[in-house]
Amino acid sequence: xxxxxxxxxxxxxxxxxxxxxxxxxxxxxxxxxxxxxxxxxxxxxxxxxxxxxxxxxxxxxxxxxxxxxxxxxxxxxxxxxxxxxxxxxxxxxxxxxxxxxxxxxxxxxxxxxxxxxxxxxxxxxxxxxxxxxxxxxxxxxxxxxxxxxxxxxxxxxxxxxxxxxxxxxxxxxxxxxxxxxxxxxxxxxxxxxxxxxxxxxxxxxxxxxxxxxxxxxxxxxxxxxxxxxxxxxxxxxxxxxxxxxxxxxxxxxxxxxxxxxxxxxxxxxxxxxxxxxxxxxxxxxxxxxxxxxxxxxxxxxxxxxxxxxxxxxxxxxxxxxxxxxxxxxxxxxxxxxxxxxxxxxxxxxxxxxxxxxxxxxxxxxxxxxxxxxxxxxxxxxxxxxxxxxxxxxxxxxxxxxxxxxx
Length: 406
What we know:
Elements: H1 2-19, H2 24-42, H3 54-67, E1 73-77, E2 80-84, H4 86-92, H5 101-104, H6 108-114, E3 126-129, E4 137-145, E5 149-156, H7 158-192, H8 201-233, E6 242-243, H9 245-257, E7 267-271, E8 278-279, H10 282-299, E9 306-312, E10 317-324, H11 346-351, H12 358-368, E11 372-378, E12 382-390, H13 394-398
Parallel strand pairs: 7-9
Antiparallel strand pairs: 1-2, 1-5, 3-4, 4-5, 6-8, 9-10, 10-12, 11-12
Helix pairs in contact: 1-2, 7-8, 8-12, 9-10, 10-12
């Protein structure tokens, strides 16, 4: 409209100048000026370029942003998936774009929400299980977009779900492990409280021995639980003290050798000369050694050696290993050995006084020391547990106070 008005005004001004008897040169200049202004006005006005339709503009606007999101994101139009970012294509497959949403996301609540059933069309997140793996858990958030479209955002909750499941299992297992000796103690106390047991010293002594053993088992379990809790509380703070691992191994070996256990005579150690110091927590490393050697003594065959070795490992790491010659462990059990309360043979472990927390404590100690734990076993031949621990800095090896044997 403004262009038409400008054209009329310029034409009228040029005609008026010609009729008024203005010189021909002046009329020509006015005409050229009018033509130049007309050409400038004919260019599109800023901010008024042709625009795409609302639907096309909406798709173009979300294409780049969703690719910048690390979580899987889908754009659904009707019942079809119109767009998917890289994370979504990796989760569902490259073929997901153009696929029916009911086929891509096989979940009743998700299908009902995305196909627009009014009764279920709300903004609350939807929990999905099994997408991308049997144990995977996702939380689906849906936001409506213009043009009968929806933005689907999937948030991975697998780690939180696994942590919650571990917590529930831990509480259940700890309760069971404490309840079993407690029930035995209460049962034998009630029996001793009866008149029949008073006149039989041998029975009374046997019952008291069982009560003592069960109470001692409970005490060891509580101590292991408290120890595990302390190690986990410190796991983000790497130890920095320089520890003489060679001296610590010899000290632990001497303590075990002087114990009353008949298997203590089978324990031997081999330590490499001039072994560098280890950056560690001496008390925790001592606990690690006692747990590993204790397991090897329990599950190794009587009369066979239990070897403690220490030497240089790959890079700047120090390798600590404990080897036994026992029945060995089947391969399917190896990945779960460091789980809390996991036992290959529960009845045998309990009869030998195990709490089911020894290797879990070892794993957390190694993790706190920023090391690596490796368990290898051959059925019928034995088991070897390797712990790779970082050496202390050279300055610590040369100058810093060393925590060695007492």
